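Objective 1b. Sequence-to-structure analysis of Zn-dependent protease (Includes SpoIVFB).
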Amino acid sequence: MTSATTRTSDRRISPVFLGIASIMAVTGWAVWTDFANSPGVAVFLFVTAAWIVSLCLHEYAHARTALHGGDLTVGAKGYLTLNPLKYTHAVLSIVLPVLFVIMGGIGLPGGAVFIERHRIKGRWKHSLISAAGPLTNVLFAVVCTAPFWLGALEGVPLGFRFALAFLALLQVTAAILNFLPVPGLDGYGVIEPWLSYRFRRQVEPFAPFGLLAVFAVLFIPEVNHAFFDGIFAVMDALGVSRAEVACGQDLYRFWTEQYPECTALLDR
């Protein structure tokens, strides 16, 4: 018997996603081979496309876990096609995260798949659905940093190395921010099933403003410094230096004045 969750079309990878992944592959090759006349443009396109791919995979992980948890409607909603245009809030999950990367170099968590939670039984399943998205960012960060902590960077072009370092930073910040136990973020979704019904009802009205509150707090200089000190401690543990991340961001923001130190390294 055919249903909304078993139709092949509901799970077929979207041409939109394949197009974004193709841009990531082609521009990644351009950065690696130094094919582009302007490496900054190639790095910008590569990192942006890779970031969007990771956002799509983040949402897919939520949906796929929900499907196995009991919500059989995610297929009909298009969540299993990896098409970012199918998300409930494409602006919040794609446009804003990309803008934040362009403006500030921080991985803004997305959150745009509507899970019908009443269809899912068991607190552990609810927690796992919420955790699946940021765990995808963790996996992406591990993949991006693997060449660094495995010492496998000999012969890797500096431009690609720097781009990978900056992309890893975005994944680490997205994972950490998303795992914060703040209403509206996935971290709160992990612990929410274990909280009392009364507490959840009291907190529910504040969920739409949770992410805004986090970024407002990050504007406090002391908090901002402590946050990024923690981020770079993680990056250091993964073998990625601040200098590599800074040069990656410098290349990414090709329209701004370039750091002489990074330019000198690339010109060698």
